[in-house]
Specification:
Elements: H1 2-20, H2 26-52
Length: about 55
Amino acid sequence: MGELKDKAKGIANEAIGNVKQQSGNPETRAEGRAQELKGEAQQVKGKVKGALGDKI
């Protein structure tokens, strides 16, 4: 179950990060990029958990 939870969080963070990157504020754009990267990492974590059967 942790696999799906991590993937869902990752997708949400990527989406929010992409929206923030459309801002006119440079700080918000940078924050959005960081959040998008966090989302990508969460999705990878979910894929690894899926491959290992949630044993990590």
